[in-house]
Amino acid sequence: MDLKLEVVVIPVSDVDKAKEFYLDTLGFRADADFPIRDGYRIVQATPPGSACSVIFGEGLTTLPAGSARGLHLITTDIEQAVGELTERGVDVEGPFHDVTGAFHQAAPGSRVPGLAPGRPSYGTFARFADPDGNEWFLQEVTERAPGR
Q1: Which of 142, 115, 110 lies closest to 126, judged by CA?
Q2: Which end of the chain has fewer CB atoms < 10 Å from its terminal CB, N or C?
Q3: Pseudo-torsion of CA 115, 120, 45, 83, nearest 10°?
Q4: Tell me, what DSSP letter sits at residue 101?
Q5: What is the mean predicted confidence (pLDDT) over 114-123?
Q6: What's the mean pLDDT in 83-110?
Q7: Cβ distance 123 to 74 under 8 Å?
């Protein structure tokens, strides 16, 4: 069976404000904006270089706005990505790595400021949130694990 993750729904409170953030601030590609009817609108946007898009709008999810956590954007140069996002007005925490050296824990207290020692692929992160508080992580991946 061949399965691909292609869409993630993001719960937002203000569709136009979210659209401005994802398209204008983050630089995602605008794929669609379908105002189907009052209370039902679909906006789809795709991060540069990604095969997976995000969808937000009205009438799409019962999750509260800002409740998405742990969304990851992968970059080959986290310092450059943090710099560009900061220049675009995004409040970015990081780069940081986890005290264990593996992935990152949910608790901010386990985050060690700076790049992971030796800068291993998958080891360095940064964090930011959209206007509603949906949480995003940047993860630096310079060499893919086998099979990826």
Answers
A1: 115
A2: N
A3: 30
A4: S
A5: 93
A6: 91
A7: no
Kindly tell me the burial class for residue 148, based on how many C-beta atoms sit within 10 Å of its own C-beta (0-12, 13-18, 19 or more): exposed
One-letter amino acid identity for 46? T
**Whether residue 73 has pLDDT greater than 90:** yes
CB atoms within 10 A of CB 53: 17
What sign does the CA torsion over 140, 142, 146, 148 have?
positive
C-alpha to C-alpha distance for 7 and 56, rounded to whole angstroms: 10
Checking DSSP bridges between strand 125-129 and strand 93-98, what pairing results, if any? antiparallel
C-alpha span between 32 and 96 (Å, rounded): 34
Q: How far apart are CA 21 and CA 27, in angstroms?
A: 8
Instruction: Look up the pTM and report it.
Output: 0.92
**pLDDT value, residue 148:** 65
> Comparing 133 with 107, which gets the higher pLDDT?
133
The answer to whether residues 44 and 35 touch, using CB atoms and an 8 Å cutoff, is no
Residue 131 to residue 106: CA distance in whole angstroms: 20
How many angstroms separate the CA atoms of 120 and 12, rounded? Answer: 34
